[in-house]
Amino acid sequence: MLETKIKNLLAELKNKLNQAQSLRDIAALWRQYLGDKGVIKLGLKEIKNLTAEEKRTQAPTLQKLFQEANETFKAKESELKNSLAGQSLKTEAEALAFTTPKIGHLHPLTKTIREINQLFISLGYSIMDGPEIEEDEYCFQRLNVPLDHPARDMQDTIYIKEPNFLLRTQTSSIEARTLADFPPPFKIVSPGRVYRNESVNKSNHFIFHHYQGVVVQKKVSLKDLFGTFDALFKKMYGPQVVTRYRNKYYPEVEPGVGPDMQCFNCAGQGCSVCKGVGWIEMGGAGIIHPNVMRQAGLDPKQWMGFAFGLGLDRWVMAKYNITDIRTLLGGNLSYKYYQDETAI
Amino acid sequence: MKLLYSQLKELIPALKASPKEAGRVLTMVGFMMDSLKEVKFNHGPDWLMSFEIRQNRADCLSVFGLARELAGYYGLKINWPKIAKLAFSKDRLEIKVEAAGAVKRISAVKMTGLKNTQSPAWLKDYLELQGINSVNLLVDLSNYVMFLTGYPSHLIDVEKMTGNLRWSLNKEFNRVTTLFGTVVPLKKDQELIIRDDKNIIATALVGSRAAEISLATTEVIAEVATYDRAVIRKNSRDLNIVTEASHRLEKELDPNGTRAALELLIGLIKKSAGGEVASALFDYYPKKYASPAIKFDPRLPGQFAGVAIAPSQAIKILKNLNCALKKSGAGYLVTPPTYRQDLNLAEDLVEEVIRLFGYEKIVAEKIPSLEVAPNITPKNIILAEKARDILTSLGFDEILSWPLTKHEANSQTNYLAWQEIATQNSINDLCPDLRQSMATGLFNQLAEYEKNNVEAIKIFEIGKIFGQIGKKYLEDESLGLLSAATQRSLDEFKNQLEILLRSLGLTDLKYFTAAHGPAAANPESCWEILAQGQAIGLIYKLKPRANKLNVYFAEINITSITALLKKVKNYPVVELTRKLISLDANVELAKNESIYKYLTGLEKKLDKDHLFSLNISDVFPLTDKVRYTIRVVYKELSDQEAKKIHLQAFGL
């Protein structure tokens, strides 16, 4: 009987398809069973030899068997395609290497300088630098430092060739050069390295880092200076910082200002950090002395300015938990593989 | 400067401020209180206050001076100690002043019939609080008066003198033994001394043993003098003598005050040790100091402060500070007291008014709106910042090191044609020379990292390098870059350097074997780096090391590339409308021939409008030649057009 024959062929096909390993095997089986000369296709052609009654009863079943054979092929082909695609992904796949790549770091001093620069750039200041081998004229004379001022003393200043060439003792020399070289108005900040003739130990160094600011325009006041310093302190220490400004002598300014910050350790009550006075000195500032203006060829009746300066090293040490000042400039400063400070 | 709160109360009886408040006020007006301690003095509780006195206020290195400041702040009167008028005799004191240029004023007198003893307890205690040992009554009174008035004095035992006193510059003595027993070598002709015929009685800084006061002393010459402060400062530094006296004399002490200080001392001596004045007052004062009359507009302090300060208030403050005011036109002529030698300009008076008005009353509610100013930031600063960002992105850590180094370090690392610069007086004598290459600091850091087992060393530093050509001192901003690895990685190091340089805007980069590499470099692996035909730095591998670590170093002159980049027009963006065409060609050159020279010639032959890139993609050494595979990428051409140009350019 034709139906039995086709059923047997279909069972045989299914069995062979199960064993097929490749699309090529499937194509061969297709040709063998369902191609124009395939055994199932040829078997189905025998329908025409059946009686009308046999056709009526068997034809639908045979048609279904044919469809089933087709679907079996498609399913197997799809299964095999998926399987082969998976094998290809495996071949192409790469594993993640869970090693930690090295990242680069900026020096804590650079990071600190950048943080402060960011504030002043947003306020329209330029960044300036100047020579580290400086002339006496720019380091002292143009800054109204008299001949016998202690800062000029051989004990404090490192000379290259006395008396005219030295390593700058303060970034105020950049102020003197900017005053000489640029017509006002200008607003500058100058982070930079300065030198003092001191022996090196855990708490002292002969190299420091200063941050200088200078504004020259038609008119400025102490109130402008205090407002600027307030912004700087808040940037460095946060909005809760308590500051005060007191009179303090510096030869290059008049009036002079000593900016202090309330001791962070004792909140002004007095402790060993602030030596019992409740405040920590933060630098120096003031209205630029008229003699400094005159030395730069500027009429102090036409132009005014303020200047400020502060040391960076101790603040950076406190911020980064560095206990030995020598660490900042070489030696045992190293960087961890991961960041543990707020990145943004 | 230390003083007792009880002294302030005695001088300013109406003072109501507590010790803490008095300290706060003095701090705010310019004398920072650096300590406040509860102490016992003269059988009662007291407060010892210590203040920082800045260089311009010699008048406040004294109890009287600080009391004057406090009284001025509160507008209170001072109850000065009463000094009985001295009855001088007619006998002249024979004193010669040979160092006229160094001496401003000398006030001196002779006393006889003294009975010296140990000091009373209160005086001993007082000096102890000041950190000074008690010697005997006469010496202690001299020191006591110094703390009260700010004027150092000397008492000289007349019976020990050999001849008359002379103030002179030392030309004779090789050494002096001070009162403290220290033998100080003298340089001759530089030290201001008080001498008699045979001995140094005192330097201007400290007394000598020659005529020191003992308990047996009955006859003294007492002197109070002021000098040229520069001479004193130089003497103090040259002889390494720092005393309470030198500390005061090296400031601008008012010569007008010497007589009053001497009279106070004589009065106290007479009261405590008896005796009589036995000479006329010797008073050498050739050039009398008078305060300037300063033109002053009382509206100025308000303008400087940025807050309202009434002119009447400014005038009141100046009067409280004992300035004499005389109306002059719209303003005033202000004559400060002579002890205020720091007041010479209107701006000085402005400061006086504002500091007593109170800095704490100047409150800035916001960041000030200052004038808009042009951006004058130099390009090298921008470039250095950019380089830092690129290098950290490439995994390099920034370090900072000492610009001072050893001669040996410079001789290992310098590759530039300049001389080393040495400092004259650095007390850090292990590192007396300025670095000539950034390698000095990076090599030191490498050594430290190796010692501390730090791995994956990739470090850089941007800083100054220094050198001298003739008499000219030069300094350049420079970038040093170092990488150390167990694997050979020169190509990777060079590529990272090139990423940096090209990201900064440099394009025409070439590497030539360096004719003069530094001593630290392996001469077979040392190249000079050129950009736009100009030398900008060096790249090299260090000589082989015992630990087999491969260390690579490069140095780029930031100053040079800043100047160079100002000239470079760099437009890296192109609009592609056709696919790029990449064609290779092999070129064989003799080993001593320059591939860069060849490429420069080739570049001239190619049409710039159609050249996208030109690279050496492979290098193959032959027996006596080198074969380079050169890859040219053409843009905006068809295949045939590109091939035609390519074959022509290479002569194929």
Describe this structure in words.
The complex is a heterodimer of chains A (344) and B (652). With 344 residues, chain A is of the alpha+beta class. Chain A folds into 2 domains: 2-92, no CATH class; 108-329, 2-Layer Sandwich (BirA Bifunctional Protein, domain 2). Helices cover 39% and strands 18% of the residues of chain A. In chain A, strands 1, 5, 6, 7, 8, 9, 10 and 11 form an 8-stranded mixed β-sheet that branches. The radius of gyration of chain A is 43 Å and the shape is rod-shaped. In chain A, 39% of the residues are buried. The model of chain A has no long low-confidence stretch (mean pLDDT 87). By secondary structure, chain B is an alpha+beta fold. Chain B folds into 5 domains: 2-74, 2-Layer Sandwich (Phenylalanyl-tRNA Synthetase, Chain B, domain 1); 95-284, Phenylalanyl-trna Synthetase, Chain B, domain 3 (Phenylalanyl-tRNA Synthetase, Chain B, domain 3, 3-Layer(bba) Sandwich); 294-360, Phenylalanyl-tRNA Synthetase, Chain B, domain 1; 379-567, Bira Bifunctional Protein, Domain 2 (BirA Bifunctional Protein, domain 2); 581-649, Alpha-Beta Plaits. Chain B is built from 18 helices and 29 strands. In chain B, the strands form 8 sheets. In chain B, strands 18-21-22-26-25-24-23 form a 7-stranded mixed β-sheet, with helices on both faces. In chain B, a hairpin with a 7-residue loop joins strand 23 and strand 24. Chain B is elongated and about 120 Å long. Chain B starts with a strand and ends with a helix. Chains A and B meet through helix 5, strand 1, strand 3, strand 5 and strand 6 of A and strand 2, helix 6, helix 9, helix 11 and helix 12 of B.
